[in-house]
């Protein structure tokens, strides 16, 4: 193994696999090592079902649960925005050839103890009880403004500066009340907190615009989900890397990261040394080089029924805005089922996630658990969140951030692009990569 590589990658989480794939496509010599015997790391999909029970030290599974191999249960719940950054990365790298996707049936938001469908047509908006009749008109005017907004064209900006006007002030311009602000900021712009209200509105406009453009692609919802679970994503990028010469080693312990004059020079494993110019890894490989930023609780729930009040959806997202449950951050629910090849026939997998705010994390997700009752089995994890202490430009070690509680991949892609920029000095830009008639997303 004592060879020189341009890049050594430790861990097969999605971020690490995307970067190894892109580096390989760009002609870099890549060695990819994982101490686990499976792909995906923190973003793995666990199969068979028995392995999920073993992983969480839970007795079972009870019968009947179908064949264990029919199950592919995600550890980190996320959907892809149909017009989002990860879809553009998949198209750019042509990883779509390895993965099939299905549109998520619906998106919902929690209000006053009940869940309501996020309107995806003008007819649904008019019939929705999320807003009163006059607010619907004002909200429609606001959405038209957002869809037509162009930060390079002053005629679309209603005589305000989007880099200075706060989002709170913009809502006020359209006379939108607190409940519409909560629904818009959390179910459309997908913010976890209300901090965005007092920041310049440009970022929020772009987020809502992304939601609307993603929704326009398939009309059911703005979200996509890969058949057989999210674990297919890192495996797809791993195949891409291998196609361009990347070497993968699973179940390979990392004994030491070798340094010389303050820079990484290689990795030692089972007595062998591989030399490198740069190193990519997740926080678990360099605990002394990361700092804790918080905690996330996730609860995997196996159900024998679709979630109530979702019109029998086989897949959906539910957002519980923080203001509805007296919290500082939102609670998310992602639900998928046998129609996505992740569960046995008649079974559903709903995963709750949120940022931990108290010393009793399970109590914090109780409002979401009540929406799912009855629950056949629950698996709860509480994970620390980490980010690198340094940017890696001096020691050439580039560390990914932990996955947050959001149920889309936009923050994940932001981290990938930031790591790529720090490694290469170049910008990873997929702005022109979307093909509206791409047959891989159906």
Automatic annotation (TrEMBL):
It is found in: Cytoplasm; Golgi apparatus, trans-Golgi network. Keywords: Cytoplasm, Golgi apparatus, GTPase activation. Its main location: cytoplasm. InterPro entries: FAD/NAD-bd_sf, GDP_dissociation_inhibitor, RabGDI. GO terms for biological process: protein transport; small GTPase-mediated signal transduction; vesicle-mediated transport. One of its GO terms (molecular function) is GTPase activator activity. Pfam families: GDI. GO terms for cellular component: cytosol; Golgi apparatus. It comes from the Eukaryota. PANTHER family: RAB GDP DISSOCIATION INHIBITOR, RAB GDP-DISSOCIATION INHIBITOR. Belongs to the Rab GDI family. Regulates the GDP/GTP exchange reaction of most RAB proteins by inhibiting the dissociation of GDP from them, and the subsequent binding of GTP. This is Rab GDP dissociation inhibitor. It comes from Xenopus laevis.
């Amino acid at each position: 193994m004592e060879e020189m590589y341009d890049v050594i990658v430790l861990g097969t989480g999605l971020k690490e696999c995307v970067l190894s794939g892109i580096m390989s496509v760009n002609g870099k010599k890549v060695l990819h090592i994982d101490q686990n015997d499976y792909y995906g790391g923190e973003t793995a999909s666990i199969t068979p079902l028995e392995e999920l029970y073993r992983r969480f030290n839970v007795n079972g599974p009870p019968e009947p649960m179908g064949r264990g191999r029919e199950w592919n249960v995600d550890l980190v719940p996320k959907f892809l925005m149909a017009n989002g950054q990860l879809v553009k990365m998949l198209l750019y790298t042509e990883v779509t050839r390895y993965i099939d996707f299905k549109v998520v049936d619906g998106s919902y938001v929690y209000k006053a103890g009940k869940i309501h469908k996020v309107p995806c047509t003008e007819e649904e908006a008019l019939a929705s009880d999320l807003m009163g009749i006059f607010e619907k008109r004002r909200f429609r005017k606001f959405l038209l403004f957002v869809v037509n907004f162009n930060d390079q064209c002053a005629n679309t900006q209603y005589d305000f500066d989007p880099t200075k006007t706060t989002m709170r002030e913009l809502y006020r311009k359209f006379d939108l009340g607190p409940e519409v602000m909560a629904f818009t900021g959390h179910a459309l712009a997908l913010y976890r907190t209300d901090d965005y209200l007092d920041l310049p509105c440009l970022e929020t406009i772009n987020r809502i615009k992304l939601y609307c453009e993603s929704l326009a692609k398939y009309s059911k919802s703005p979200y996509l989900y890969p058949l057989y679970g999210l674990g297919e994503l890192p495996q797809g990028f791993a195949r891409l890397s291998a196609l361009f010469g990347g070497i993968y080693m699973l179940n390979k312990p990392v004994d030491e990261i070798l340094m010389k004059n303050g820079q990484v020079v290689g990795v030692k494993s089972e007595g062998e040394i591989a030399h490198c110019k740069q190193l990519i890894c997740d926080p678990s490989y360099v605990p002394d080089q990361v700092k804790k930023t918080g905690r996330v609780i996730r609860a995997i729930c196996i159900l024998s029924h679709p979630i109530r009040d979702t019109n029998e959806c086989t897949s959906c997202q539910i957002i519980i805005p923080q203001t509805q449950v007296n919290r500082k951050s939102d609670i998310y629910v992602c639900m998928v089922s046998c129609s996505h090849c992740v569960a046995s026939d008649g079974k559903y997998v709903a995963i709750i996630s949120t940022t931990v705010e108290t010393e009793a994390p399970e109590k914090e997700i109780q409002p979401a658990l009540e929406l799912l009752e009855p629950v056949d089995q629950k698996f709860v994890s509480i994970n620390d969140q980490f980010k690198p202490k340094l940017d890696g430009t001096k020691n050439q070690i580039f560390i990914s951030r932990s996955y947050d509680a959001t149920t889309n991949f936009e923050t994940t892609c932001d981290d990938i692009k930031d790591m790529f920029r720090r490694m290469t000095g170049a910008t990873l830009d997929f702005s022109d990569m979307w093909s509206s008639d791409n047959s891989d997303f159906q």
